[in-house]
Design brief:
This protein has 211 residues and is mainly beta. 5% of the residues lie in helices and 30% in strands.
């Protein structure tokens, strides 16, 4: 699966995240942000374009309906942040903490979650197209009633993840691991799994596998 990387210029302006307040509307563009702390804040429909954000904290901040385009987050903490009803396109999350982050009802495309902790995050009722979770931990993450197109889980921990009412046709989880999953038999149709995972899933669904 080919994912379009963020289109970010090398000529970025060093900025602090609070610079987003200097515009008439909350907007940050062509910025290089590092070592910012922006926790427990509320922003109404913020927009961030063509930016790199590193080593920054956004815990418990309300970014509802945020627009993120061509952005790279590195070593950032967005745990328990609200990103509901967001538009997230050509974005990378590298080595980030996203514990309990709310991505519900969002449009997410050409996005990579690499080497990140995404435990208990919520993606319910979201559309994910060309999204790769690579070496990510997604324990008890919720993908309720999502629309998947070109979604991959490469070397991830999916223990306790819920795919309730989400069709996994074409989704490859064969290199990932899990102890339990919440998923229906019909939604597994066309999902790519390893032989070991097939036995696990059969057992989880009450089948008795005999050799």
């Amino acid at each position: 699966m080919k994912i379009t990387a963020p289109k970010i210029s090398e000529a970025l302006t060093p900025s602090h995240f609070t610079d987003i307040f200097y515009e008439e509307d909350p907007e940050l563009e062509m910025a290089f942000v590092t070592d910012s702390e922006f926790t427990n804040e509320i922003l109404e429909r913020p927009r961030i374009y063509h930016a790199i954000i590193k080593n920054s904290q956004f815990n418990h901040t309300d970014f509802g309906k945020i627009q993120l385009t061509d952005v790279r987050f590195e070593n950032c903490d967005l745990s328990n942040a609200n990103l509901r009803e967001s538009s997230i396109h050509r974005v990378e999350f590298h080595n980030c903490k996203l514990l309990g982050t709310d991505f519900s009802e969002s449009s997410i495309g050409n996005v990579t979650f690499n080497d990140s902790i995404v435990n208990m995050a919520m993606f319910g009722n979201s559309k994910l197209e060309k999204v790769l979770f690579k070496e990510a931990v997604l324990q008890q993450t919720d993908f309720y009633d999502c629309k998947f197109k070109g979604v991959g889980f490469d070397l991830c921990d999916l223990s306790g993840t819920s795919f309730e009412q989400t069709a996994l046709k074409g989704v490859d989880i064969s290199t990932s691991r899990f102890d339990t999953l919440t998923v229906s038999i019909e939604d597994l149709n066309g999902c790519k799994v390893s032989t070991h995972q097939a036995v696990q899933l059969a057992s989880l669904m009450g089948l008795v596998v005999k050799e």
